[in-house]
Amino acid sequence: VIDEIPKPKPKPKPKPKPANEKLKDLQKRLGVPESGEWDDATEQAASSKMVRNGARGAVVEWVQTQLNAQGMESGTVDGIAGSVTVGAIRRWQDNRDDLTTDGIAGPRTMQTLAES
Fold it and tell me: What is the DSSP letter of 100?
């Protein structure tokens, strides 16, 4: 008796990507519609709520959470951007060719964190 070789199972079709939950969370904190897509409203709100040394609030908490998740060690998620958070922002930016290393989480930095 010859053992039959099992046929490989067909690969499942890729499912459509769900809306970006990280981006929706950021949009909620920015006070814009939670579309899950980076749009003009998100861009403008991110421009007006950039995270820099001394910044405080929900957007700072979001940036700290994302940086910690990426191993950038922004310290305790407390909504206060101090030297540890700014250092983590700089490390994130320095590791990416598409960002300027300035220690400020503006729209581009926030977008890369949301898409990571």
Answer: -
